[in-house]
Specification:
TIM Barrel; alpha/beta; four-stranded parallel β-sheet; globular; single chain; 10 helices; 9 strands
């Protein structure tokens, strides 16, 4: 079970958090200067309103990532298989493990605390990411903020996630050293809007992350596949990028459209009804199965209607994850693209991986 506040306390927590987050996917917000700083050391049903009746329980599609174990699944696939023909389990806002009293509005992924001290949140962030990779997650969604030390802190809305981009790279590097035939796909997004308005977060000095700052991390890492960093790369075959971190997208970053890979993205995140969200997910599944094999199809299962306590990210996951699992089970063998989920369950991860050719 993750550290997300139970749903009986969600309304109270969200009353505190009201206005803290304006989005579950692209939005940003500010809580307090201390929280924002990011400096080291500092088969679902819907109710009559169309929203899922969610609870903290786990299921095969939802909130049971720790029951999945696929550390080597890409290694079994042919070297000549293009990335555009893969079906890949991923996580939306991969590192959003911490939210304090605003947990339901902020936290999107299960935490792993084993082996970490009570106050060692960085350990929790790193161990939780490794647990995702060991479970089979291969597509990451990393959100960054320029901090006061000119580093890249991990951020979800107003909340510093007690880790930096170098923590993500270190965990991914170690995973790839342990499993050298695997590949990790990673999106990097600048999280803050730098407007100075209440409930929005600012980069230090309101200077957003730029390519030079990001390159300081990426070009020095021997596991990063540099063609995806230095320019717009065509989709490689899997054999070209084994043991590598491949950058899929640089979002909200200057000249980001000149880097990464060819993408087609579904990200209808802003307060949709569960039926509207499902229609968007379903349409993107069709595109992934029938579209251009030289394009990566990203399909976000996530959404948020915060500060409405009936529309926190976890409630969408409780509904959309099982729907996606049912659809995939009904269509074995079809390419599914990159499926970016909140609180993915073990059977959902299993099923996505099972849609790859052998």
């Amino acid at each position: 079970m993750s550290g997300v506040i139970g749903f009986r306390g969600a309304a109270a927590a969200l009353a505190i958090a009201a206005g803290v987050l304006s989005a579950g996917c692209g939005g940003v917000a500010q809580h307090t200067a201390t929280v924002v700083s990011g400096v080291r050391g500092s088969t679902a049903t819907s109710d009559t309103a169309g929203m899922p009746k969610a609870g903290p329980e786990s299921s095969e599609a939802y909130r049971s990532l720790d029951a999945a174990h696929h550390p080597d699944w890409l290694g079994a696939l042919p070297d000549g298989l293009g990335l555009g023909r893969l079906s890949v389990p991923g996580t939306h806002d991969t590192m959003a493990f911490h939210g304090d009293k605003a947990g339901p509005a902020v936290v999107t992924q299960q935490r792993v605390t084993a082996g970490c001290g009570f106050d060692d949140k960085t350990c929790v962030s790193r161990r939780s990411l490794r647990a995702q990779l060991d479970a089979g997650i291969r597509a990451l969604d990393i959100r960054v903020r320029r901090d006061e030390n000119d580093g890249l802190a991990l951020q979800h809305g107003s909340f510093y996630q007690d880790a930096h981009l170098d923590d993500v790279l270190a965990v991914a590097d170690q995973f790839l050293a342990d499993h050298p035939r695997e590949t990790v796909l990673m999106r990097v997004k600048a999280e803050c809007d730098n407007t100075g308005k209440p409930f929005t977060c600012d980069d230090a000095g309101r200077v957003p992350p730029d390519p030079a700052l990001i390159d300081r991390y990426l070009t020095a890492d021997p596991h990063v596949w540099q063609p995806s960093v230095t320019g717009r790369a065509a989709l490689p075959a899997l054999g070209e990028v084994r043991g590598r971190i491949v950058l899929t997208q640089f979002d909200n970053i200057a000249n980001g459209d000149q880097r990464g890979l060819p993408l087609d993205i579904q990200d209808d995140w802003h307060d949709p009804s569960v039926d509207a969200k499902w229609a968007a997910i379903s349409a993107q599944l069709d595109k992934a199965a029938t579209g251009d094999s030289h394009t990566l199809y990203l399909n976000f299962l996530s959404a948020s209607g915060v500060p409405d306590p009936a529309r926190v990210p976890e409630r969408y996951a409780h509904d959309e994850n099982p729907r996606t699992l049912d659809r995939l089970r009904a269509e074995p063998g079809r390419t599914a693209g990159l499926l970016m989920a909140d609180f993915p369950g073990s059977a959902l991860i299993d099923e996505i991986i099972g849609h790859n050719p052998r």
